[in-house]
Amino acid sequence: MRQFRFDWRWVALLGFIVVLANAQTLPWPVLVVTFWGGGGYLLWQAWQAWTLIGGRLPGARETTRVTYWRGQRIETAGPPRRLRSFSWGELAPVVLYGLIGLALVFAGFASLVRAL
């Protein structure tokens, strides 16, 4: 028998839709915080998806080779890592989360500028 699992993201999505539906009547700070919160969460999800597929940033830590000689630990630079190409199936969540997250963050900035 399957157990009931509660997922808070559905509640957050419903709250986001309610705020957008009432955008004309709500004060502008509520709308800006909602946009930034949703956009920030999606950008965080994009980062999590990127690190999950093995994405690296320039300047990331390189591999080191550890050898022991006469009881002493010696660390030397390891062989350079070859960057593999990513498939579209691996990059799709990163691109989708990132673009929607950026759009929401920019919508928050636009709402902020319009209100001021």
Mean pLDDT: 85
Question: How many helix segments?
Answer: 3
CA radius of gyration:
22 Å
SSE order, as H and E?
A: HHEEH
**Low-confidence spans: pLDDT under 50, at least 5 residues?**
none
Biggest sheet: strand arrangement: 1-2
Tell me the structural class. Answer: mainly alpha
Coarse morphology: elongated
Helical residues, percent: 55-70%
Q: How many strands appear in the DSSP assignment? A: 2
Q: What is the makeup of the main sheet?
A: 2 strands, antiparallel
Question: What report would you give on this structure?
Answer:
It is a single chain. With 116 residues, this protein is mainly alpha-helical. The chain is 58% helix and 10% strand. It is built from 3 helices and 2 strands. The protein has a two-stranded antiparallel ribbon with strand order 1-2. Strand 1 and strand 2 form a beta hairpin. Helix 2 packs antiparallel against helix 3. It starts with 7 loop residues before the first helix and ends with a helix. The mean pLDDT is 85.
